[in-house]
Every structure is written in C-alpha cells, then in structure tokens.
Amino acid sequence: MIDKRVASLAEAVADVKDGSTVLCSGFGSVGEPVELIEALHAQGARDLVIVANNAGLGDTGLARLIGSGRVRKIICSFPRTADPHCFDEAYRAGKIELELVPQGTLSERIRAGGAGITAFYTRVSAGTDIAKGKEVRLFNGEPHVLEEAIRGDFAFIRAESADRWGNLVYRRAARNFNPVMACAAEVTVAQVARIVELGSIDPDHVHTPGIFVDRVVVVPRSPRA
Amino acid sequence: MIDKRVASLAEAVADVKDGSTVLCSGFGSVGEPVELIEALHAQGARDLVIVANNAGLGDTGLARLIGSGRVRKIICSFPRTADPHCFDEAYRAGKIELELVPQGTLSERIRAGGAGITAFYTRVSAGTDIAKGKEVRLFNGEPHVLEEAIRGDFAFIRAESADRWGNLVYRRAARNFNPVMACAAEVTVAQVARIVELGSIDPDHVHTPGIFVDRVVVVPRSPRA
Amino acid sequence: MTPLSRRQIAWRAAQDLPDGAYVNLGIGLPTLVSDYIPEGREVVFHSENGVLGLGPAPAPGEEDPDLINAGRGLVTIVPGGAIVHHNDAFLIIRGGHLDYSLLGAFQVSAAGDLANWATDDPTFPPGLGGAMDLAVGAKEVRVLIEHTTKDGRPRLVARCTYPLTAARCVKRIYTNLAVLDVTEAGFVVREMVAGLDAPALQRLTDAPLAFAPDCGVLKAPPLGERARG
Amino acid sequence: MTPLSRRQIAWRAAQDLPDGAYVNLGIGLPTLVSDYIPEGREVVFHSENGVLGLGPAPAPGEEDPDLINAGRGLVTIVPGGAIVHHNDAFLIIRGGHLDYSLLGAFQVSAAGDLANWATDDPTFPPGLGGAMDLAVGAKEVRVLIEHTTKDGRPRLVARCTYPLTAARCVKRIYTNLAVLDVTEAGFVVREMVAGLDAPALQRLTDAPLAFAPDCGVLKAPPLGERARG
Questions:
Q1: Which residues of C are catalytic?
Q2: Which end of chain B is more exposed for a tag (fewer CB within 10 A), N or C?
Q3: Are C82 and B198 inside 8 Å of each other by CB?
C-alpha cells in the first residue's frame, strides 16, 4: 500500500543534512511551505543552498533561516520583497552568496532538472551582466545563453489537498513554483491543508501526480485574515 | 470581445498554404483532430510537413492526406500503427520523407518551440543511429545530443470543451500531445466537442488557456461505438 | 504644465491596448493599468506568477489570499481566467505568446535598451524577477515611467548607465510628460502634456528628441486613488 | 520442458515489482503485466500517452474510447490515477521518476544493450515510439522477450546486430525459458524452466551464460487468456 503521509513536520524534514540543496516554492508568501521551512530551522541543518524565487520576508520561513545564518547560498530571481531585512543584512555583511537568475530561467532550469534535460539555450539574459561567464552561442544570428539544470536534494512544496498517493491539487495562484519544484528533487515533501480520499480527485484535475511526491504532511490553513 | 469560434471546418483551415508545417495531435486516433485533417485534405494544400506522433491509420485523417500525396515530409516517432498502409506505400515508394524522432524528444522539441527554448541537450538517442549527424557533447562525462525546437505554421488539436476565449478542457488520455502542440504554432486551431459558457470552467481546471488558441470549431463527438 | 499622475500614466497606456490583447503587467506602475481598460474591450492580463485573466483589486471582504499579482497585491480573476504553474507562465512569456509587456524601468535608451533591475548602488541587492524574460519574450515591450528621477535627472537617456535588462527591446514609452516611440532614429514624441514645449521636454531628456508631425496633447481624465486600489 | 506462455512471462515479471513501484509498460508483452500484480501490492502503472494508474482492460460495456495504453488497447484508470499531457509523461520518463521500465525487444546483448526499434529489413518502416526515452530515463530497465525468434535464432546475443535503442541499459530479462540478470560479467541465469539444463539454454543463447549459485526453477501458474484481456 502506498501511503506517503507522515505524522509531523519534524518527521517530514528529519533527514535534511548539512550542505543540502533545498528547493523552496512560493511567490512571496503565497504557496510558500512556511511551516516546513520553520521545521527545517528547528531541525538545525546548516550550510544550506536554497533555490527559491524570493529570499524571505519579515522574520519567518526563509527569512528566519537566512537570519540564523543557515543558508550558505541562495539561487533566486528577486531577493527584494517587502521587508527583506534578514536577507539584506546577510547580503550586506557578505554572509550569503547570491546567484541571481531571471525568474523564467530559474523555473526552466528547475524543470530541466526534473525532466532529464541537462542544459538548454535561451535568449534571455544574453548581452547582460547576468550572462557574464556563461557560454553564449548564436542560433539564427541571435545570441543565446547556455543554462544548466538545477536539482534539489529536497523540494519543499505546499498544496491545498492531497490523497495518500501524494496526488496534489493547488488553489489559484498558490500553484506557482510548486508543480515545477515537485519534479526536481530527490525527496519532495508537500505540506497540504487537508487529506482527501484516494480516488476523490478526478484524474483530469490532478495538478501534481503522486509520482513526484515522497512525503505529505498536513498543516491546516490558518483562518483567513 | 474575444470570440475565437469559427463557423465551419472549411473556414478553420482555409488559409493553410502549400508548404506549411502542420502539427497534428493525437496518439493513434485518440485526441486526433481527424475532422480538421479531413478538412485540410478537402482544402487541397500540398507539399506539407506534418509533425505528429504517428503517420495515420486506415484511410482517414493523416492516412488520407499521405495517401493523396499531400505530405512531403513527416516528423514522427512511430509511423507503424495498426494498418498504416497509406504511409507504408508512400514510404516504400520513396514519396515521403521520414524524420524519425524519439517520442519524448519529439514532444520536448515541440514544447521548446512553444516555450522560446531554442535548443536543448538530452541523453536520449546518444550513441544510436538516430543521433547521427547531430552535435554530441559531454555533460558529467555522458554524451548528450543537441536537439532544436520545432514550431508549426499551424497546430491542429482536439479538445472536449472550449469557451469563446479558447480555454480548453480535455478528457482522459485524449489530452496527450494537444496541450504541447497548442503552444507551438503561429495559428492553433482546436476542434472541440462542445462550447461552454465563458466563466463556467474553473480557472484551476483549464488545461490549455485560450492564449494559445486562435480558432475553435465545434465537431460533435460521434456516438460511442 | 501639469504632469500626469501615476494613475493617469496607467490610464493612458491602457487606452492603447486593443480588444483581445494578451498583456503582462510588471511590478509597480504597470499593475495599475488593468483598472482603466475602456468599456467594451476584452483585454486579458497575465501575471508572471501564473494568472491569466487578472481582474481588478477585490472589494473589501472578498479578498482571496491565494490570488495575487506580480507585485503581491491582492487581485481577482475574471470569467474566462485560467491558472497555470510558474513554468507555463514563463513559457507564455518567453515563447512569444504575449502581445504586450508593460514594464517599469530605471532607464530607457534611445536605442530601446531597458535597465530596470539594478542601480549603481552596490549595497542595494538587485532583483531581476521576470523582467529579463518579459523584455525578450513579449511581442512588444512598452515602458511606463516617470520622465525624470525624483531629483530631476533624465530617465530617457542616450545610453543606459545602469545594467541592462535587455538591449533594443522597448518600442513605446509612457511618461508623466509624454508618449514616445523608440524608432531606428531614436525617440519620437507622439504626445506631450499641454503647457510643455519641445525645448522644455528636450531639457528633461538625455537623448535627442524628434517630434511626430501629428504630435498631440497628452491628456487623461482626473483619476482619484480608488478606494479598492 | 514447457516454455512459459506470453501471459506467464508477464506474470513472472509482475511478481518482482515491489509495493509502491512506479512502472512503465511498453507495447506488446509488457502491457500484460498489469493483470498480474500480487494481491495487496499497489503498483502504479504509467503509460507514455499520459496515464498514471493504468488499470486492467475494461469490462464489456464499460469501455472508454479516451482511455488507451501505449499499445492503443482500451484500459481503465484506478482510484488515485492521474492524467498528464505528453510532455509531462516524458518528463516522468526522462527525468528518472519511474522505478522500472518494462520493454519488449528484438535483441538484448550481454552488455545490456537494447535493440527494439528497427530490424535489418529496409522496407519495414522503423518505429521508435518512446523506447529510447524509456531505455535511458527509467531507474531500471527490464525486458520481456521470447528467448528466440520464431525460426529459432537467439534474441540474447553477444552483440546486437540490429540498431541500438540504447547501450548498457537493461538490467534484467524475463524470457519464456529463463530469468536472467545483466551483470558486469554478462548474462547470469537466475531461474530457468523445469526440464531445461544449462547446456540446452546455452545453445539457445548467443552469449556466454553464467548460472547463479541459487539458480531456481522458473514457474508460473496456468493462465488462460482472460475474457477481458
């Protein structure tokens, strides 16, 4: 029997080792698996490489992880969200390495990691400072940048509902990076608002099939503010 | 007002020119826009390049187009379906050029065409006859083949339902190549079993957003055999 | 001479979007554009975080915390809207599926070069977001921008001094003072606000300006800050 | 000596699939495997055309024309199943998400080379399908194959004479006569049918065979053609 449910957040993140690469979904706080990241903070792993769109806001989730000095490097597109003081302080103090990637290239590199595509050529960033040091090649007379796949040791994602096989359904714009990151890690851990019966999700409406998901942990949504 | 409905199959394919590249969806006959292809046959365009998984079966759809000598070249993964006599005859007579592509590479090249990814490296086919003449490059010591994007002048696809914006919903395994090909052509034409009211498809359940679809023509499903 | 307000710049840009257009709205000024589409037109707004059919800000009490735009502002989704994941949101952008990308900017050059992701302040962490993808991928890139910085320096320049987002990508610019096209010959002014003359606009611009023969008056109706904005 | 039937080969391969495995079934013999998963195990079958959770053939009257497997046979979908588009079906394949790929073959070499897409007959149009993707992408590739051709020539060979699908990819082979692993040292026989001895099996194989110390008897229950098959 396939049952990917785990009993606690602590159990869900227990085996993240120092030095791991962790893909963290979300666009700002929407779709962010903030409780998983908080559990990782409590677990204590250090020297992490984080792949995310942002670099945390306020003092929770990614921001706390960065503020506590656990993150060696962040690969992201937009570290400047509302109140990014944890990242800002670490960045200004030279305590965190930043690899800045255009958002679409970031998403595509993660997808490539999940899809068995080792590298690809894109026009995005050609001729800019971001392409410095990267291979550039002409196709149809236009410069293209070679970009390589990204994979995680772990992916932390967040969904609205799941069945015990790990089939996931998202709500509205909380989908964002979740289906992409779910594909691209050795271990994908999903925090979900609720568990539904196996077979209750129409196969045509599954957003992330369970084949991509290793662990599911329930974190009820807080009441809407 | 956005209204992508066209009144007839003939109108939907009227501007396909001789020499066009046409992406035709379907896996065998499931998800195949057979009435659109029949309309193209009636329209008379010649010297076509067809991109499809198969090369037609029996005497309808792609098979008829090939049998009538309208197809100069086919790019596909598996020409040998049940009763492929139209393709077989043309192939044996040297009347059709065949570019054989692994199915996943075919799908990925089409997606790349839709996604603005000009080329990519994959391990698939490295070291085989299919990779002959292609650029091979080592990543992590393993040979990879460089594959380039495919785009169509037209994509013919098939869906279960559509709204007037061209948002599409598929049923079960009839989804197959449809969402992929919808993205990768200058003009995407969808035959659909029925039109539904704008707003009646849950935004979380749209399979192909209307941004990819230029024309929608209704072809009721024939009663199930 | 009365410069346009930020909302009036957004209003002006909205008037040029044709019925049926698919349009991405970048962070900042552009996100205001969706409030001002003329009656009777259907324009589909795309947001890099996977929303197609972005609607106006929600009425009080109708906020959905899972529905935000690229600037993390709460939005609605219109009938006919669709949600896609991030990778498909950028397939749409990079694959040339958007008719227009409306972007903010620090600087735009007379060649259409765009700089909108980093300044020359090394202590200010840069932020790319989807700007590079949008600048390269959309069929047409338009910029909404204040004509000068707060301390009066031109943002429309002969050459960008800030790092580029993409070269030669901007086709039209809406500022608080003028509407300009970027042509092979550089900036061409299509409209400017009443009370401003050509020499005055030129003094606020760091690249030679040409003026269209039919150069018109840039005007917009009075627009209050919307209660729901 | 009684060789296994095609359904018995499928049955034998099914016994080795562990609970929770994600498995692709190739065209032909492998598609029969889903009928024979032991009671109490949940194995999720994937089909290249975008079905996860492939179930058995439908009961008469319950056919769904939109639900087919890679061989175009009508199938069902189990509770917990999911549909994906073709590109995601191959993301799953190429991205290493499948635990096992079960494939048919024309030839397999002692090095694990697989040939299953073209013969040496130039008038026979070749067909790749998803075989190259599956051979490279799955965590483990297993082959189901008749031990010899209809006219008695070996299919397990020292070197493939037909064009390769992929080199060094096959780890285990189920034939009508034996179960073999492909090791660094070549074919190792794990089981063979009763009544067959090592020299006899060697004569039907075009590469040296080693025999596992615990080499067992290959057996399968009698299996009729299922009414619903």
A1: 48
A2: C
A3: no
Contact C85 A173 (CB under 8 A): no
Neighbour count for residue C73 (Cβ, 10 Å) = 15
Residue A85 at interface with chain C, using a CB cutoff of 8 Å: no
In one letter, which amino acid is D32?
L
CA–chain centroid gap for B205, Å, is 22
Strand-pair category, D51-55 with D44-47 = antiparallel
Would you kindly state where each structural domain of chain D is located, as residue ranges? 6-218
- CA-nearest residue to C89 within chain B is B115
Residue type for position A124 = V
- Locate A97 and state its tokens: 């390495």
Nearest chain B residue to D165, by CA:
B128
With contacts defined as CB-CB under 8 Å, which chain A residues touch C63? 224
The pTM is what? 0.97
Q: Closest to A211 (Cβ–Cβ): which among D44, D90, D94?
A: D44
Residues of D serving a catalytic function are 48
Query: How many Å lie between the alpha carbon of C123 and the closest alpha carbon of chain B?
Result: 34
Residues in contact with D199: Cβ distance below 8 Å, sequence separation at least 6, in sequence order: none
Tell which CATH classification among 2.30.30.140, 3.10.290.10, 3.40.1080.10, 3.40.190.10 matches the domain B9-116+150-218: 3.40.1080.10
Q: CA-CA distance, A133 to A136, in Å (whole number)?
A: 9
Question: CA-CA distance, A43 to C162, in Å (whole number)?
Answer: 42
Per-residue pLDDT of chain B (225 residues; tens, 9 = 90+): 999 999 999 999 999 999 999 999 999 889 999 999 999 999 999 999 999 999 988 889 999 999 999 999 999 999 876 677 899 899 989 999 999 999 999 999 999 999 999 999 999 999 999 999 999 999 999 999 999 999 999 999 999 999 999 999 999 999 999 999 999 999 999 999 999 999 999 999 999 999 999 999 999 987 654
Domain coordinates in residue numbering, chain A: 9-116+150-218
Half-sphere exposure of D227 (CA within 13 A, CB side): 2
Distance CA D150, CA C205 (A): 83
Set of chain C residues whose Cβ sits within 8 Å of the Cβ of B159: none
CATH, range D6-218: 3.40.1080.10
Contacts of B207 in chain D (CB under 8 A): 85
Distance CA C117, CA A34 (A): 27
